[in-house]
Amino acid sequence: MSTQDKREIQELVDNWSIFSDSGNWERFAECWHEGGFMCATWFQAPCADFIAARRKGFENGVSIIHFHGGFTCDVAGERAVSQTKMTIGQRAMVDEVLVDVVCTGRFFDFHEKRQGRWGMVRRQPIYEKDRMDPVDPSANLALDQQLLASFPPGYRHLAYLQSKIGYKVAKGGLPSITGPEIERLYTQGKAWLEGADSPGRPELQF
What is the number of alpha carbons within 13 Å of residue 71 lying toward its C-beta? Predict the structure, then answer.
């Protein structure tokens, strides 16, 4: 793996969040290769559809931001898999209380170099833990415990918020720290580096 490849891939990963969070949709689209696929709690679709949905939400005031930490990357020829420590933050009204949800995890990304340019072909968040806090600490927030418990622990509060504002959220199949979902993802990453026909998909339940 060349240092230049790793540097370009890390810049690509950083650009994804910066351009997404700032509403720079033209530059955001440049982070992907044609046929790229996004799989999040609230949306699973080809990148063109994801960009359109992200733009619509942004223009309607949906507040989702990302922050990156440590980065690692494996490169095999013109393919790569990277992992990036991250947080996803979303602010919205939940049961008439303005809240912030922060979800901590990793971005697990499948990349390919086409015509000299690295681009994403699949982005798969790994959801490790999350929490919900009222923006006003004095606010009284009482969650529906049955609804909350219907979502996996790694993104339980994020899913609660997203379901409350109208999104259809996956209730299973997304990777967390341990379990068959993360093992499946690691296997798909290894296969991608070894020449698999596609980067694979999660098996989601709703």
Answer: 16
Ranges of residues in the chain whose predicted pLDDT is under 70: 1
Residue keyed to tokens 């020829």: 77
In a domain, residue 120? The reply is: yes
The pLDDT assigned to 181 comes to 96
Identify whether 199 is part of a domain. no
- Say which CATH number the domain at 31 has: 3.10.450.50
**Separation between Cα atoms, residue 144 and residue 163, nearest integer Å:** 12
What residue type is 169 in one-letter code? V
Q: Is residue 87 part of a domain?
A: yes
Sign of CA dihedral 172, 174, 179, 180: positive
**Residue 11 pLDDT:** 97
| Number of folded domains that form the chain | 1
Q: CA-to-CA distance for 148 and 157, rounded, in angstroms?
A: 7
Three-class DSSP category at 81: strand
CA angle, residues 189, 77, 17, in degrees to nearest 5? 55
pLDDT at 1: 56
Residue 206, domain member (yes or no)? no
Residue with tokens 């996803």: 88
